[in-house]
Amino acid sequence: MDLVTLVSLLNAGMLSIAVMGALMFIMTPAYRGVCLLLVLVSLAALANLLEDLQISRELHLISPVFVLGYGPAPYFAVKRLTNGFIGYQAAWHFLPMLMALPFTAHTQSVIAVGTLWRVIYALLTLRLIIEFNRQLTKQRSDAAEVSLAWFGWLIGVSTLIGALDLLRLNFQLELGAQLNMIGYAASTFIFFIILLLLILILNDRRAGLETLAGSTIAESSLTDTEPKRNEESAADYQSLFAILDKEIRAHNWYCQPRLSLNQLADLSGMATRDISRCINLVAGMSFNDYINQHRIEQIKHALREDDNTNFTDLAFAAGFSSKATFNQSFKKATGMTPSEFRSKQQLQNQDSNRLVSRD
User: Is the dihedral of CA 129, 290, 145, 35 positive or negative?
Assistant: First the structure.
């Protein structure tokens, strides 16, 4: 199989996967921005396929303009996931694609501008993801499961590959036809893998990610901007924390899967700001760590009662939504894996039994 055929097959595969992904996600409101990205990818793959097969190249070269769309499309996909709304003004961010259409004969220049455009949006998207992930730990007990860090890595890698592909285009004469084609095939393959990973991860995490939109509160609304805030201490919230902690334990609210700060405010009748401040100041933890600590304590107690209980059953009963998050939280809270803790508990139980038998 020659490289031209391989690239054509990869573009055909990207077209098929992107269309399939868009059809899979179109009924999930939080994924509408992702669908826009997948439609853009499918159109770009179709344009590349037709041009590589010499079907449309003689009419007009359009594939370079899609580079200008690979910047704003992921940005608005993340924005739709996190904020839950994208206004019609977002369409203006794709206007440069149309403006570049008459100039596609200058392929290298269009792709150079598109790559710069893409880098700018990649930085904006990464900033959005970092800030959102930071807020997740303060406001959701399932922060690790709905984190968008993986999305940031995919955007970073795809932007880097796009920049390297620009270098390939600028050194085509020096590289020669064979090396140039190898570079084109390699970048197309990597983009194919990134697209496949994007769809697989989104589908796997759909249950959690579709709850993201609007689930976090702006940090400014959780803190008081008056000078008095700087004078607040744990003592100011000690009594409120005692009431909150007692209620959480009494009603086992921490066992509610994907418990968020908003939900706890509804259950307790307290303001989100007060809950956030008393947990941060008195417990010295983030909301995520505080809720998961209660869950871990329940699991440790269950293991002391019966050290043969299935870990997964215990984790889900305590409110964890995934075994991976449970393992990570347990290790963070105890310094041991669940298996290590169970082994230690079994040894302690054996020692206790020996002492009882001697008595």
Answer: negative
- Inter-residue contact 22 to 35 (CB < 8 Å): yes
CB 184 within 8 A of CB 168: yes
- Tokens 């955007």, located at residue: 155
Which pair of structure tokens corresponds to residue 240?
Answer: 């409120």
Nearest to 324 by CA among 334, 311, 335: 311
- Mention every residue, 6+ apart, whose C-beta is less than 8 A from residue 300: 334, 341
**Paired tokens of 223:** 């803190």
Chain segment 65-115, per-residue pLDDT in tens = 999 999 999 999 999 998 877 778 888 999 999 999 999 888 888 888 988
Q: How would residue 207 be classed by pLDDT, with cut points 50, 70 and 90?
A: confident
Dihedral through CA 121, CA 122, CA 125, CA 126, nearest 10?
A: -150
Confidence of residue 175 (pLDDT cuts 50, 70, 90): confident
**Token pair of 76, please?**
């608005």
DSSP 356: H
Average pLDDT of span 166-170: 81
Q: How far is CA 145 from the centre of its chain?
A: 8
